[in-house]
Amino acid sequence: MCDVGEFLGFDPFACEEDERDAQSDGEDYDDPRALSPKQLGRRGEEAACALLRRKGYVILERNWTCPAGEADIIALDDGCIVFVEVKTRAGIERGLPEEAVTAQKRARYERIAGFFLSQYDGPGARVRFDVIGVLALPRRRALARHLVNAFATGD
Question: Where in this protein does the record put region Disordered (predicted)?
Answer without folding.
Answer: 17-37
